[in-house]
Predict the structure.
Amino acid sequence: MTQDTESHQLILDAVDRFLRTEVRPHVKRLEQADEYPHEIVEQMKAMGLFGAIIPTGYGGLGLSTATYAAIVARIAAVWMSISGIINSHLIMASAVLRHGTEAQRRDLLPRFACGELRGGIGLTEPDAGTDLQAIRTRAVRDGDHYVINGSKTWITNSLHGGCLALLVKTDPQAEPRHKGMSLFIAEKGPGFAVTRKLKKLGYRGIDTCELQFDAFRVPADRLVGGVEGRGLQQVLSGLELGRINVAARGLGVATASLHDAVAYAQQRKTFGKPISEHQAIQLKLGEMGTRVEAARLLVESAASAYDRGDRCDMEAGMAKYFATEAAMDNALECMRIHGAYGYSPEFDVERYYRDAPLLLIGEGTNEMQRLIIARQLIQRHPT
């Protein structure tokens, strides 16, 4: 075992212990009450998870994306919601790390890494989701500040977090439209209002809100990279990491569904024998297990490409598309194997079934992923 492999395994073992002792016993209560897990978040801060992929020189753990994805898969197998608390935060951190000025990195990354300043990404608006170039939130330069007006919706970490990587229009007349978009690291202050916490089918316990900006002032030195018009590209590069994270979440939910299905199938008996001995159940388990292993390989491939610095929108898209569909399919099959018990909140199965659909939508719909994959296949293999 190499030193890197040993370190990787030690980290995963520590995460497993944390999940077993500090998370699993509280999941049902927190999730069913839709209660934010304050104590768990404090423990995640102490473990350094908010700085997982931030380099050690800026106070982070400096983990590879491959190790980070393995952590996320383990977390999601226990409670998917808390993986979102670090995912959106690290997309914000990645934008600063990859595109920020050195002054921004020195100022912000250590605060992100220790969890002192936590947040997410403010992209979606009531009339702009997949089509980010249609956003209307506006930032106007006023001396050494920008004044921001507009609204955002479906923003993770916006109630209990302290800042956002906020995508806005600095030049609404620009053509093409993306040249008029800029990204700011916006800490909460006067004019930044959380107007409503949104109720959700699943993904409970984590705050997802609507926001309103009314003459909200952001210092000009919080414009990521210091130059207007680069915001969309900065966000899209961060979404590669986000899609790997969502793929890892899908892997986690698919794995948990498989584990619970295999265990229950050996306990439940019909016609005098465990249902695991019935061919119909074996067919389901065979498909579920294959989905998990295929999803794992795709996630590892995308994470490795990201770590190498390669363009990986296709690899991340493939991983996100397949692993999240695997989560949805496995959650449904797990519920069918459990029968009526799978429909009861006393079992974890119904939570998997409610959490999985979000993964098909978040960080770019799976329909969009297939288009990205197809376009990259054509671009990379011209005739």
Observations:
- The beta strands are 119-122, 138-142, 145-156, 163-169, 181-187, 192-197, 208-219, 269-270, 273-274.
- DSSP finds ten helices and nine strands in the chain.
